[in-house]
Amino acid sequence: MPTSVPCPTCQTTVEWSDKSPFKPFCSERCKLIDLGEWANEEKAIPGEPAVIPDQQPGNDEAY
Question: Transmembrane helix: is it a keyword of this entry (predicted)?
Answer without folding.
Answer: no
